[in-house]
Amino acid sequence: MPDSQVGGPLGSTVKAPDPVLMAAAAMVFVPDLGAPVLDAESAHHLLDVLRLRAGQSVVASDGMGSWVPCRVTPAAAKGDARRWDLSSILELAGAVTVTASVRPRLTVAFAPVKGDRPEWVVQKLTELGVDRIVPIITNRSVVHWDGERAQRSVERLRRVAREASSQSRRTLLPEIASISSLSALAVLTGGTPSLAQPGGPPPSLDHPVIAIGPEGGWDQEELAGDVSTVGLGPTVLRAETAAVAAATLLCALRSALVAPLA
Q1: For position 205, what pLDDT does the model report?
Q2: Which of 3, 85, 115, 165 is the most exposed place for a label (fewest CB within 10 A)?
Q3: How many Å apart are CA 132 and CA 190, to the nearest integer?
């Protein structure tokens, strides 16, 4: 199904999150919901950072929308010989729940800037609910990811998205795509991306793919022809702010927190 095609009415209200999911002390990702085995990093986070104790609730998710309530077992206690048996820390405490997906799939692409701003952008877009996040290279990009650096950078962004999903109780991990061009972005999403540009029309669910340019903006070649643009407000935004603004508006429209213009 193309990203722009819907499996229900556009802007239909998204169901409120399950209270069990929201009340859990933490959420972790595991490969098998029938036998929740933690990885070492998740075990360290639960036991040494959060200091969870036996009986506390934890949600385990497969990252594909399904989750199951669990409890921390007595094996988590300090001094217990089973403490670092990663299969003994959680026990099932309920049935598997499947989170319904919503349409259209929302994509925000952005040109990475210097420093740790790309990680911040991915963290916030994940929390907001964007389905696909794509770092892109543009004609005016200052930061260039290629070769091994591109692979390392994208893997880092995927770790950030995973951590942000745990924090925000998001059971469906966003797709963090490899570094792309604008033309490749259109192929990836099955539709023409809208370029964020001052003076463009307001965001719409009819155009669920928004691309954010670098600090220097798009050049004339990228804006030439029958290109689709979208405006994000009356002021000039930093690149990372524009990405978050685009995600906020699209996600709010999809969940009917705001209404589209008549």
Answers
A1: 95
A2: 115
A3: 13
